[in-house]
Predict the 3D structure of the following.
Amino acid sequence: MDLFSQIDDQEREEVLRLRRELEEANRLYYVMNQPTLSDREFDEKMRRLQDLEAAHPEWYDANSPTQHVGSDLTVTDSRSSVVGKGFEQVKHRYPMLSLGNTYSRDEIADWLKKLPADAEIVAELKYDGLSIALWYENGTLTKALTRGDGVKGDNVLLNIRTIPTIPHHIDGLPARMELRGEVLLPWDRFEQLNREREAEEEPLFANPRNAASGTLKLQDPKEVARRGLTCYLYYMLGEDLPGRTHYERLEQARRWGFPVSDAIRVCHSIDEVMDFISYWDQKRKELPVATDGIVLKVNSLQQQEELGYTAKNPRWAIAYKFPAEKQLTTLRSISYQVGRTGVVTPVANLDPIRLSGTMVQRATLHNEDFIRQLNIREGDKVWVEKGGEIIPKIVGLADRNDEMSATASLNDELTYRFPTVCPECGTKLVRVEGEAAWRCPNENGCPPQRIGKVLHFVSRKAMNIDGLGEETIALLYEQGLVQNIADLYDLRKEDIARQERLGDKSAENILASLEASKHVPWERVLFALGIRMVGETTAKKIARRFRSIDTLQWATRDELNAIDDVGPQIAENVVAYFQDESNLETLMRLRQSGVQMASTEAEPEALSDKLKGKTIVISGVFRQHSRDEYKAMIEAHGGKNSSSISRKTAFVLAGENMGPEKRKKAEELGIELIDEQRFLEML
Ligand code: IVH
């Protein structure tokens, strides 16, 4: 293999990995309200993915997270257990896009320079809550939709009506008007809520945004009212609306009685914009709600229209994000935590400080390299940062200026040693080439890893076994009752009922849920096994190719590698999994318990062959169905979905704001564009 194709292979794997990571991060953020990445990490990964995709247009994928906004739609899984039940899903009249963003003032200046010379800019605060679309029909608030997947959202009207500043009816509004804004939980309400949850031993919300999102998806408007959400509106849409500028419209909305922020300024120069940014970067700390940046919008509606949209963002607006808040404190000691995948993470124990609304006394130090690079040691003053995530980070060291510590640090550098054995099970740690992390390789013997495998197995997206939380599983583990996933199915009622905080009723529910899990389809069982790097999507793809454990068990690296999205590393992990005796024993026991080890579904049934032999490219933003749905429709009718236009393309299924490059290419090759409506009629 030559060097270039090796680099290509690596980049291809990176693209696939980033897509998976961002997809998962989106799901955790929007659906589960449990962010795992800070905004900054997310944005950085997204940028990297955008760059790689730009360098390799041949890898374009309409389903890439770069091509669509994250989804907050309540999830219904195949056994119709739902995260948040019962919201009507409604199509947005206008797709709900997000904004391009940057942390760099230089990029803001570049963006401004590219606009028409006479463009006025409206600068606003970027509120850090969740977006909402309010529909007013003949003056009455008739729907309140979350962003959802950008095409359709959840109607949370009853909950929105509990916000005192949002009018239910106003005389004299345009017949059909939509106002968009941000729903927020103010800082003091957020802290109060977390205090209550702490007392009730419920999991805490990481930040006000997650708390607002969790609150808006409650099925109990009384509880929503009690928590005290608030809202700011920043965008008006519809036909026959007043005003020729964005600013005039916001002013009009304010006069009508809608909650519009005062922190808005019309700017005429880069300097004015920068002043606004600097002012609010400081002043925002005094605001009652969370903000994470500034939004800049071209004021003239005419100019907005001329600038138009990309698939994801308007070209007439951009967000500047503030750097995360930082504080100095003292590092007391370093401890080491073994995660569920065996990664050993150094954790800093700190003198407690207040940061972004919460008290912080532990922070991650990431890995050995990080500690060495910063040359951190106990007693140092360190900078701690907290973005949107639960776990704060050490981001730097205060200057050490006295000579003593400079010498000491030199010695420390020589003597700092990452533990060589696992603090949990004593196994010698290994460092995987190319990775910064030390890992405990004792996958099937190290307690947190064993518990982690069971937790993953019972989780909602895997076997969806209710009633077994982290604490219960840890207890069952300690008592020797559940040492691995197969033991779950040997549990007896009395084993469970005698655990603290459980009883007969819970024991019965858990057993019923275990029983029900025997019907979970093979693809999810495969995901539940927790083979390293085999996530939900990968498991699905593997399960479609290898339709039972008996065939998968003998799969070769090459066969696995040939599956879409499966690279050499994943293939290796799968093969290694089946070479481990203890895994084979676990699988045998699962099978004996009645867990599905093969696909029971017939091959997916074709609905028609109307699109047989046709290769179709999807491009743009759609109103009636999501891209994934269109992709599935094409396949169900015998067609093939492709990412790039060529002579072989039968037609382009074209949504709004189709990319200009694609449009040009289609025109050049004389390929027909078919819109959503016509496509649906065709089928
Ligand atoms: S304008 C087409 N203005 O930031 C323009 N958005 O990533 C739509 N946000 O989804 C957005 N404050 O939830 C706009 N003053 C503001 C905002 C704002 C917060 C949120 C909004 C949007 C996200 C963009």
User: Anything to note?
Assistant: The chain has 25 helices and 22 strands.
